[in-house]
Amino acid sequence: MGVINVLDKHVAELIAAGEVVERPASVIKELVENAIDAGAKHITVEIKNGGCTFMRVTDDGCGIAKDDVRVAFLRHATSKVRVEDDLDRIATLGFRGEALASIAAVSRLQLITRHKDEETGTSYLIEGGEEQLFDDAGCPAGTTFVIRDLFFNIPARAKFLKKDVAEGNAVSAVLDKAALSHPEIAFSFIRDGKQVLKTFGDGKLLSAVYSVFGREFANGLIPVDYRLDAITVSGYVCKPVHARPNRGMQNFFINGRYVKSRTAMAALEEAFKHSVMVGKFPSCVLNISLPYEMIDVNVHPAKIEVRFINERPVFDAVYHAVKSALMEHDTQKQVNFKQNTALHDVKQFNPFHNADAMIKPQPTPPKPAQPRPAPYAPAQPAPPPQKSDPILELDYINDDAELAPSAKLGEVRTPQNPFDIFSRQAVGSAKKEAAFDKTFMPQKKTAFVNEPVAPPVTQEEPEVVMKDNAQPVLFASPKNELKYIGEAFDTYILVERNQKELLLIDKHAAHERIIYEKLKAEKAGAASQILLQPVTVSLGKNEYSAAVEHLDMFRACAFDVEDFGNATLIVRSMPQYLDAAEVADCITEMADHIAQGKNDVFTEKMDWFYHNVACRSAIKAGNKSSAQELMAIVKTLEENPEIRYCPHGRPITIVMKKSEIERQFGRA
């Protein structure tokens, strides 16, 4: 006796419905996508009890023709796909033709619709897949779906629904994604009688982001607009200082469809590498536009997962788009003081703010008690003047200082180098100053102001003569003029920029990133050591093929690698800073990078080494540093504006606007 049975229509529909309709959020997603495909400009969604008992979706799209209403609820009935070739270039959000049939099979559904070319609308009622009513109705052009009692005929599945709050939040997340992917559509979301989302449909993505995520999130974004061949990437990414502790705010849309893409996620985080702190993740709202034939969306019934014909162009487009946006729009972290109401409340400073107080007599306050006379004590001699901090003892502070008889305008006398003018004790104090390794500083020439020409070397204190009492300037670049102020807490360098901003620079973070970049550029000196016993590394076929074609990339990183045949490489030498036990893992990781087409083949272990060396070699916070050391760091930062974060992602510079400072003192 055979054991294979043919299911009846009702049971088959219930099984098929489970693939599409899992919870109220699934219903809302399918109906909203249909509304978008219908060309709607306004979409309103209303739910009650998390959508378990009531859902309504209304749009002003083209509507459904009366002759198509019944057909629309048949399985695999769709207006978006006709022939097999259409599946290779799907341009709509919906295309399977399963949504309406699946929803109607597990709920009580009412449809009210009118096609834009018809004068009379249609009312259609279907419960559990069975038609109950089909009649004419008066209604505006568009479509309204009302779904009641989801899973009323499948109690076992209804028990798996979560609490109303959780189901409502899932519906809200679906509406958020729809609003972000189509800012040209005005969305309204009503939850238990309260409107919780309203977008304006003005076509501006930032406006939709503001409505969905709020002002604080929107203010921390920078724009992205990039094109690589046939792929366009647009939208917004967060500033590195606004990175989040998880990936929950990473939103990727491909051709207007919300997707979960590991390729896009990896490219985003690779672009933010060394710009966000460890354990933090960037957030984004990015729309990737590419030819429809380059992507397959027919992977899963939920249509969230996609498959690319070639992932590499997508990775490169997202990576370069985000990296370019960070280089162009990311700025140094700025301090915004909170408004001090005590300083800005005019009534506290204006004794006449109350006119009645000027007219009505005020009661005379009681006289304070007279203090008892203090016992006689002989006058103490004034303490001797304390010697001031040598860093504050600057010639340019005293405008009335007398000029030395032999001094000439613009001449700096007896400095060891042009930086010594900032401290009277700079000369001869090398024993008290931390040594500065200049080998880690990029050698770029900068025009210094008032640079002496072959100054004599003596041990007397330097004198500075500035023309017209001008302030001494550290150096001037084509964009900025910076003046060294000093150091706070033996950690933060204070620099004035263009007489408009005060920069606080973390000397350890800045020096660490400078050393790291130099180590990485020089491959840590590319010094290698020969292995006493060569190491063989077995690879996958793709990795092996790519590695054999790019053996020079291994040599550039101080690895001597040869083809050993049979998908195996042999390593005869390695960088000095690595342990022999780590060779196999490093070669495998580098081969994987090469197979993915990456030019940067540094492994996590090599990157860790550069971090470790840079951190150990950099000037430490709390240690004494000379003005020469600190100013050399400032100079390097000025010449390399792309250095904004340390290798661990901490900001290097914080900017305090002059206007903000003046506002705190009541000057603005």
What would a concise description of this structure say?
By secondary structure, the chain is of the alpha+beta class. An 8-stranded mixed beta sheet has the order 5-4-3-6-2-1-7-8, with helices on one face. A 6-stranded mixed beta sheet has the order 16-26-22-21-20-19. Helix 2 runs parallel beside helix 6 (164-181).
What is the topology?
Layout: H1 9-20, H2 24-37, E1 42-48, E2 54-59, H3 69-72, H4 99-105, E3 108-114, E4 121-127, E5 130-137, E6 142-148, H5 155-158, H6 164-181, E7 186-191, E8 194-198, H7 205-213, H8 215-219, E9 221-228, E10 231-238, E11 250-254, E12 257-259, H9 262-271, E13 284-289, E14 295-296, E15 307-308, H10 311-329, E16 333-334, H11 341-344, H12 346-349, H13 355-359, E17 412-413, E18 463-464, E19 475-476, E20 481-488, E21 492-497, E22 501-506, H14 507-521, E23 528-538, H15 541-549, H16 551-556, E24 560-563, E25 568-575, H17 583-595, H18 604-617, H19 627-639, E26 653-657, H20 658-664
Parallel strand pairs: 1-7, 11-13, 16-26
Antiparallel strand pairs: 1-2, 2-6, 3-4, 3-6, 4-5, 7-8, 9-10, 10-13, 11-12, 14-15, 17-18, 19-20, 20-21, 21-22, 22-26, 23-25, 24-25
Helix pairs in contact: 1-4, 2-6, 6-7, 9-10, 14-18, 14-19, 15-17
